[in-house]
Specification:
Strand order of the largest sheet: 1-2
Order of helices and strands: HHHHHHHHHEEHHHHHHHHHHHHHHH
Number of domains: 1
Number of helices: 24
Shape: globular
Strand content: under 5%
Helix content: over 70%
Largest sheet: 2 strands, antiparallel
Number of strands: 2
Length: about 500
């Protein structure tokens, strides 16, 4: 129960103010189509430089949580998911809005998100210290394989093509080698003076996640959206509360599915929401009502996508394996402040770890309270023209990149990577594995070199890295995740081709 002793840190005036700002801002950003939780967190990282590590993480964690929940606003009112995690919410949420129950659907989504989110954070609280102690057994070889595992898991699961996902991870690993070698001091791929110190993580994050969206928004120009806008009518909050707790089955399924999937690195909130929706439909006696504006569909989907937020941070805080693309960005935020996840986090920085986790617990409640009031404002934000939103995001991207080191070189790096990522996405490549390769590349390289030195002094390099139960377990997991992803991709292609033949 160590976390209780740090609970008061969240309520310090400045810390609580950051929590409020992150929550309200995240709700508004989440409601804006195209601004994913990952991009929202990436844009906020530069603003944490002048903050203490715990304060920076409070802001980022609040934005992460509330952006996922805020995506339900545009999903329900506009039938445009604010984030991939809200895809399942559109199925019944928009149908409810069309029937004049838009306010009720929003209330149900925020209440279900709060219940699922609180449960997910409680799992984070009780599981993380246990796994962190277990992480003490990891040496250089194990940390090397963990870094490779993080890249391969995200690369194989967060992309439409396994090969393209893994190639994205390899590109990220290559980008991580740019600059001077930390061990030997040799120059590597320095073709511009701005790259002498390597590629800074923050401009890279902003460029890879924000700039492709900005270009897409500008490409749409001033063309009016074809999305149907629905007026939000008032609805008693008591009715929504009663409805949520009357649908215990959907709430329990959503929370359980989201929590379980959150623990699996690389799966993501969109999978959690869709699986929870599917399972809730199968177990419901009113399964025929799903898709027509049934409250169970909204409750299950939103409980799941917020329940996975807390558990997705468990592998990050204990083993340095991000459970989602947003968690990968949070890893960058930790490393910027000189904090490496794992046993070191809870042994040497317990105030940072527990204050951050407690803030996410309190943030779930604030997200629910503010969500019910900010829904109308967020709906207005969702209607902002793409050209205006693109200009605002571009301004934040340039400011954030420049402010890291007061260098235009970082702005050029951000812009170059962003434009390159825009074209890579057109060919089916994903930004998440590329970013993770960039973040985990130095960790993998440092541990490989350190492990090689130990191996040369004690045994052979192959024996050091490829023997031992923990090494073999990690290697098997790496190979299994890649093999499973290949099998699923081939299976989906086979089914698709069969459907085309039938047509």
């Amino acid at each position: 129960m160590e976390f209780v002793s740090y609970l008061s840190e969240v309520f310090l005036p400045f810390n609580f103010l950051l929590l409020l700002l992150g929550t309200v801002g995240g709700l508004i950003l989440g409601a804006t189509p195209g601004l994913s939780p990952t991009m929202a967190v990436a844009l906020l990282i530069p603003f944490t430089f002048q903050l203490a590590p715990a304060q920076g993480l409070i802001l980022l964690g609040a934005a992460y949580t509330s952006t996922v929940a805020g995506g339900a606003v545009s999903a329900i009112l506009l039938k445009i998911p604010g984030a991939p995690a809200n895809i399942a919410t559109t199925l019944d949420g928009h149908a409810m809005a069309q029937k004049g129950e838009g306010a009720k659907a929003l209330q149900l989504s925020f209440l279900a998100s709060a219940v699922g989110g609180v449960f997910g954070v409680l799992l984070l609280i009780f599981l993380t210290p246990i796994l962190a102690k277990w992480a003490l057994a990891f040496g250089p070889s194990h940390l090397f394989w963990l870094a490779i595992l993080g890249v391969t898991v995200i690369g194989s699961l967060d992309s439409s093509s396994v090969v393209k996902g893994l190639l994205s991870g390899c590109i990220g690993l290559w980008l991580a080698t740019i600059g001077f070698d930390d061990i030997m001091g040799a120059q590597r791929f320095i073709f511009h003076s701005a790259l002498g110190g390597g590629i800074n993580v923050i401009p890279a994050l902003i460029g890879l996640f924000a700039i492709p969206q900005v270009i897409t928004m500008f490409a749409k120009g001033r063309a009016s959206t074809s999305a149907e806008i629905i007026v939000v009518h008032k609805s008693p909050i008591k009715t929504a509360i009663a409805e949520v707790f009357n649908r215990k089955r959907a709430l329990a399924i959503g929370t359980a599915v989201g929590s379980f999937i959150g623990l699996i690195p690389g799966v993501g909130g969109q999978i959690a929401g869709l699986v929870a929706y599917d399972q809730s439909k199968k177990f419901s006696p009113e399964r025929d009502k799903f898709g027509t504006g049934h409250s169970e569909g909204v409750i299950a989907a939103e409980a799941a996508n917020n329940a996975m937020v807390g558990p997705s941070l468990v592998p990050l805080l204990t083993l340095s394996i991000p459970g989602s693309p947003t968690a990968a960005v949070l890893l960058g935020g930790l490393l910027i402040h000189g904090i490496f996840p794992g046993s070191d986090l809870f042994d040497n920085h317990p105030d940072v770890a527990w204050t951050f986790i407690n803030s996410m617990l309190i943030g779930q409640v604030l997200m629910c309270v503010f969500g019910l009031y900010v829904a109308g404002l967020a709906a207005s934000v969702a209607r902002v023209p793409h050209s205006v939103m693109a200009a605002v995001v571009l301004g934040l991207a340039v400011f954030g990149s420049y402010s890291v080191q007061n260098s235009m070189g970082d702005v050029y790096v951000m812009a170059s990577l962003g434009v390159a990522m825009y074209f890579l996405e057109r060919f089916g490549f994903s930004a998440a594995p590329l970013v993770l390769g960039l973040i985990l590349g130095p960790i993998a390289e440092a541990n490989f070199i350190q492990g090689s030195m130990i191996a040369n002094a004690t045994s052979s390099v192959s024996q050091y890295f490829f023997t031992g139960p923990l090494n073999l377990t990690l290697i098997i997991i790496v190979v299994t995740s890649i093999g499973y992803s290949f099998w699923m991709e081939l299976r989906n292609r086979r089914y698709t081709s069969k459907e085309e033949v039938m047509e």
